[in-house]
């Protein structure tokens, strides 16, 4: 299925930042795959948490997960990534490989602040050597 992404509208961006009370977040346009459904979402990356917000007004958090709950990040083709936590599994499809890498690097970097001697290779599955090198920098 081809992705049909659009830029995050300014109104939605403002609604999300107002909901969270901060502008210190990263917003990534994505699609969330749930069983046979595909839903346009905004993935909000905070310092220690990710929020899934439906890409429509008013902004409302559908689900969130702590990076500490992440057990595996499996990178697939077509800019897809599956994040498995201790309670759920989330399959995201991103607009670009850059967005996917941005999300993965953000999560791994956050975790390395808590566990500095941990290896991202234990968390990441099917990561390219290029991505692993970018994370190590």
Give structural notes.
The protein has 137 residues and is α+β, with helices and mostly antiparallel strands. It has a single domain (10-136), classed as PH-domain like, CATH 2.30.29.30. The chain is 30% helix and 36% strand. It contains 4 helices and 8 strands; from the N terminus they run H-E-E-E-E-E-E-E-H-H-E-H. An 8-stranded mixed beta sheet has the order 4-3-2-1-7-6-5-8. It is globular. The termini are far apart. Residues 1-5 have low confidence and may be disordered.
How would you summarize this macromolecular structure in one to three sentences?
The chain has 137 residues and is of the alpha+beta class. It has helices spanning 10-20, 97-114, 120-123, 129-136, and strands spanning 26-34, 37-45, 49-54, 61-66, 70-75, 80-85, 89-94, 124-125.
How many domains? 1
Elements, N to C (H/E) = HEEEEEEEHHEH
Widest sheet: strand ordering? 4-3-2-1-7-6-5-8
Q: Return the average pLDDT rounded to an integer.
A: 86
């Amino acid at each position: 299925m081809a992705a049909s992404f659009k830029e995050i509208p300014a109104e939605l961006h403002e609604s999300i930042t107002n909901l969270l009370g901060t502008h210190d977040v990263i917003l990534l346009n994505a699609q969330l795959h749930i069983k046979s459904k595909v839903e346009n979402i905004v993935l909000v990356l905070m310092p220690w948490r990710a929020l899934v917000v439906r890409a429509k007004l008013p902004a409302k958090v559908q689900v969130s997960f702590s990076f500490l709950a992440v057990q595996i990040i499996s990178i697939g083709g077509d800019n897809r990534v599956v994040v498995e936590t201790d309670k759920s599994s989330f399959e995201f499809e991103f607009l670009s490989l850059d967005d996917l890498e941005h999300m993965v690097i953000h999560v791994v970097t956050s975790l390395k602040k808590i566990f500095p001697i941990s290896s991202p290779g234990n968390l990441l599955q099917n990561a390219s050597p290029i991505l692993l090198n970018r994370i190590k920098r």
